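To assess whether ligand presence alters the predicted conformation, the chain was also submitted together with 4'-phosphopantetheine. Input:
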Amino acid sequence: MRTAVYPGSFDPVTFGHLDIIGRASKIFDRVIVSVFAHSAKKHMFTVEERVAMLKTALKGRKNIKVDSFQGLLVDYVKKKKTDVVIRGLRAISDLEYEFQMAAVNRTLYPAIETVFFMPRQRYTYLSSSVVRDIAHFKGDVSKLVPPHVVKTIAARRGK
Ligand code: PNS
């Protein structure tokens, strides 16, 4: 049984994340999608809201679990009895940040493997921050996130 952890902020989940999760769940027996709960970043949605949006998006997907974690990713991964981390790589611009994170995690826990998946081209320039920006100016995000996330964003904007 091969389990992999896909960690992230997911603020909010986008079609790009769902693309990566779909690819990973074909290769691994079980994928745990986990929202990092203690980021220094300012978030649009609470951890509970981000977990709820992921759960709705992944409902019925038997080998995918949604969770959240605090503290170091390596400790969480060990607790889940795996050593595989999934990350998405969209463009070269992601590489430096991702390499640094993978290297730090490997220093902390040498057995860890970070496996990168490339989303389909149409999601190359999609990120949660792009979605938040468009949402901030009341733009249309329906091509970027699932319908229930569009609704959650609209409710947050007080529309
Ligand atoms: O979606 P994001 O914001 O790019 O995800 C970043 C995340 C949550 C994967 C990363 O910040 C993380 O793993 N944080 C946990 C704390 C940690 O382990 N830090 C050391 C590795 S950089």
